[in-house]
Amino acid sequence: MENTLWDRLSVDVRVEVDRLIAAERDVQAITLMRERAELPRPGLRDCVDVLNQRFAVLRERSVSPG
After folding, report:
1. How many Cβ atoms are within 10 Å of 29's Cβ, its own excluded?
2. How distant, in Å, are the alpha carbons of 32, 50, 53, 60 from that of 57?
3. Does the residue 45 lie in any domain?
4. Fewest Cβ atoms closer than 10 Å to its Cβ: which of 24, 26, 39, 65?
């Protein structure tokens, strides 16, 4: 996935964001991204864009065979 905000998050934060998205805890996922990204603090729109991209990736993984 190519996204500058996603790249600014640590691996641990990425795992937690994915876990929150899978648990349908979108607000908490956005809050985590805003709090834990390297400066400058990301805007809400950037976080929502990442949320939507990660949701699509996770959905694709859950329906892919194998």
Report:
1. 25
2. 19, 10, 6, 5
3. yes
4. 65
